[in-house]
Sequence to fold (292 residues):
Amino acid sequence: MPAEILRLAHLTSPLTRFAPAPTGWLHLGHVLNAEYVWGIAAALGGRVLLRIEDHDRTRSRPEYEAGILDDLDWLEFRPDLFPTSAFRAGRCESRQSDRDEVYRSAVEVLRARGLVYGCDCSRAEIVAASDGDTSGERRYTGRCRERGLPLADGIGWRVRMDPGVEAFDDGRLGPLSQHPAEQCGDLLIRDRHGNWTYQFAVTVDDWQQQVDLVIRGEDLLASTGRQIRLARLLGREHPPAFLHHRLVMQSPAQKLSKSDGATGIRTLRAAGHTALGVRSRFSMSGSDLDVR
Ligand SMILES: [Zn+2]
Fold:
């Protein structure tokens, strides 16, 4: 049994999720993640939920969602909760753009605790004032914390991230700790265009949908502490377990990107590749998933 599954062996029948954003076509990076998600769920007797993360209304497109659903069917990744047909049928409670009321209720929880405030800083102001940590991430300095701006349309909404460490035991990387207040500062939960942010939407969804195992690429590792913090502020007592896997590499320095047509599943399909051929580029063996 791969080492990371041993680290997660205390979980009984976990619910994990596959959660693509329809801002591009399905690509090999998604297939690697899906192999982890479905493979680990199967090894632990767990289940997989499908979620469409179209929280960013300016970049998400229905044709990308349709393409992602078609490619998942073709690859034979079958969700236990919310099959692809549930999304094709129209409104679906696992599609973020159909969950606005859920996010509004979650904001009310934070608001009642005095944790949310309006922020009208422009991107340029935030960049100019930022004092990011050593990873280079821009940290919001909290300029609008005490200004009392209303939570209105046209400005950002932020949640307070007070100092403190968030510790977690990653399924592959072991014990880790992060400092959200030092990494990102007060977290944007809704942007000035009215889009719920990734951090807020997935934290609310993982809690509300009772996801207790999050399996994702290590490019999202820095988000984990702030999501654990946000979940607790929302009232979630026990955060999910996390496993951050390696990213598929084209060359050691280059992450596969959605814009790279050569890695798009629909492109590979059109070129005559079989689903088995695409999936067999990744295999679960030894102590990790090997990328062939
Ligand atoms: Zn501000």
